Amino acid sequence: MSQPPRHTTASGIPVEDDQNSLSAGPRGPLLLQDFHLIEKLQHFNRERIPERVVHAKGSGAYGAFTVTHDIRHFSKAKLFAAVGKRTETFVRFSTVGGERGSADSERDPRGFAVRFYTEEGNWDLVGNNTPVFFIKDPIKFPDFIHTQKRCPRSNLKSANMMFDFWSQAPESLHQVTILFSDRGTPDGYRHMDGFGSHTFSLVNADGERVYVKWHLKTRQGIRNLDAADAVRLGGIDPDSAQRDLFDAIGRGEFPQWDVSVQVASEEQLADWGARTGWNPFDLTKVWPHRDFPLHPVGLLELNRNPVNYHAEVEQAAFSPANVVPGMGYSPDKMLQGRLFSYHDAALYRVGTNHQHLPVNSPRCPFHNQQRDGAMAFGHGGAAQNYAAVNPAGQHGGGMGHGEPELALAGGAGRFDGRGTEDDYTQPGNLFRLLPAQEKDNLFNNLAGALVHVDESILQRQLGHFDKADPAYGRGVRAALKARGRNVD
User: Where is the Catalase core domain (predicted)?
Assistant: First the structure.
């Protein structure tokens, strides 16, 4: 009798245990990072046609990732099996806060999402062009995004809303400093770096876990727009980044990024955290390269434009939950929230069976019991639509990744570290690294927004600059005074 096909997620990732949810101990509560459980329940809940929502403006292209250095001692993932091995990829860049018709040159972080179509399923490295983010807890994400969108009364963007939020979230200062520096307005997508931003994990063939941060360094060189040029370009050509990427690939000028990874054991991170006072899984913090140097991994190249923008770019749906055997997650709270929210957003925005669309479908065989719902063209035919219960003990662990158990500690609760955690040293270090002209640009860019905010909000935000570096606060005050705003 022939063996049934191996059970996988809809993204083609192997599932060894379809009988037991991931829990904290044999009787403990379930974990949100159990993506297989979440995906099954979400799909079941949406087996009738839902509404959908429009996604932000972006650009995309196909390419390939080539392994240049052996990291098999870190990960057993088959895409790293040999130097020279190539894996097909799709990359989507985007502005984060703007609407679909907004200008590519607006001051905004840039999304940098990479899909690797591996033989073990899709790996989605969903990051930004910055190594940190504004918040460290996903419960604040809806509030933060509301401040970046339009005021519900005026329907206008509001600096007052933005800085009201940021000034009461000191952990945001690191990302705010990047956003209002020259790197807040990249000159197109080819001339910026990418980061996985979160802490992820890798698992080798011996079941040993290390924690990692992914870096993608542009070979085209960093190129940014100053504030005046960004505004001018937004009026002349609001699609400048899309045009630049599409035309460059059409000319055969294929953009490339060197892919590297910072690596640390659990023990190293515990020691570093105790020494510095920083949580190594905090998305508002970086791992300094002097403590955790980069290990080269491979080369990413984009070499083919999509044929249809809507089908291949607008309907592309990424999720950081998509990791293949040899990879895993971390206790990063923002990552834990994104493991749920990205797939859930795709279910609403694109549809219940969005993973069957060509740009989202894995390039390897996949088998699951998901059926029906909108766009059920990958319907499974007459195959059995349920999994029988296996005899006791005849199943693997987790999603078949061979990942060791993640030790949990402490009682369940809601923990607020504001006022006790150091949110100023790292943005201060970044500020001190900036050349004099870039410092002046930072002061002027901030003053251009802060000149419009209420006095109480302004004073709160200036206090954060002062704590990062007194020269930071003095520079912003001088730029505000030059604009006619009197500050103490």
Answer: 8-395
Which of 55, 174, 215, 354 is catalytic? The answer is 55
Answer whether residue 336 is part of any domain: yes
What pLDDT score was predicted for residue 24?
A: 77
Catalytic residue (choose from 128, 129, 353, 368): 128
What are the pLDDT digits (tens) for 172-199?
999 999 999 999 999 999 999 999 999 9
pLDDT tens by residue, 409-442? 788 777 888 778 899 999 999 999 999 999 999 9
In 204-343 the beta strands, taken as DSSP E runs, fall at: 209-218, 256-264, 294-304, 327-328
DSSP string, 397-433: STTSS-PPP----S-------TTTS--SHHHHHHHHH
Task: Note whether residue 300 is domain-resident.
Answer: yes
> What is the residue-averaged pLDDT of the chain?
89
Residue 83 pairs in a beta bridge with none
128 is catalytic: yes
CA 386 – CA 374 distance, rounded (Å)? 19
3-class SS of residue 296:
strand
Q: Are residues 346 and 454 in the same domain?
A: no
User: Which token pair is 382?
Assistant: 């007459």
Q: How far is CA 119 from CA 46, 88, 365, 466, in A?
A: 28, 10, 9, 51
> Are residue 478 and residue 336 in the same domain, yes or no?
no
**156: enclosing H helix or E strand:** none
Question: Across residues 43-61, what is the average pLDDT?
Answer: 58
Predicted confidence band at 390 (pLDDT cuts at 50, 70, 90)?
A: low
Structural domain ending residue among the three candidates 298, 328, 356? 356
Backbone phi and psi for residue 149, each to the nearest 5 degrees, phi listed first: -90, -160
CA distances from 157 to 151, 298, 304 (A): 6, 40, 36
pLDDT at 375 over 80: no
47 belongs to a structural domain: yes
Domain boundary among 341, 356, 371: 356
Buried b (16+ CB within 10 A) or exposed e, 126-161: bbbbbbbbbbbbbebbeebeebbeeeeeeeebbbbb
